[in-house]
Design goal:
This protein has 88 residues and is of the alpha+beta class. It is built from 2 helices and 4 strands, in the order αβββαβ.
Length: 88
């Protein structure tokens, strides 16, 4: 998937490995707008969290988002969090 590769490249560009800084990717399913948004987030110790929108997927891609999260973790070493997804 070309868009997945672009998303991983965006993450790698932003992941600068600064001391005392936490990095993670948050994937949020917004059920009312039927969109899956992807954010790159980082926070320095004792400072507020900075969140940057880096991508979007249609609701039809929902079935493969968890596999995408695993791929992001494997290829970038950045933790992935999911929000808004229902687990059965």
């Amino acid at each position: 998937m070309a868009y997945d590769d672009e998303l991983i490249e965006k993450i790698n560009q932003r992941f600068t490995k600064q001391p005392n800084t936490l990095y993670w990717v948050r994937i949020v399913y917004e059920r009312f707008s039927r969109v899956i948004n992807v954010f790159f987030e980082h926070a320095e110790i004792n400072l507020s969290t900075y969140s940057e929108y880096i991508g979007e997927y249609a609701e039809t891609e929902k079935y493969r988002i968890h596999e995408l999260g695993k791929r992001i973790e494997r290829e970038t070493n950045v933790r992935v969090e999911f929000a808004g997804f229902e687990y059965a």
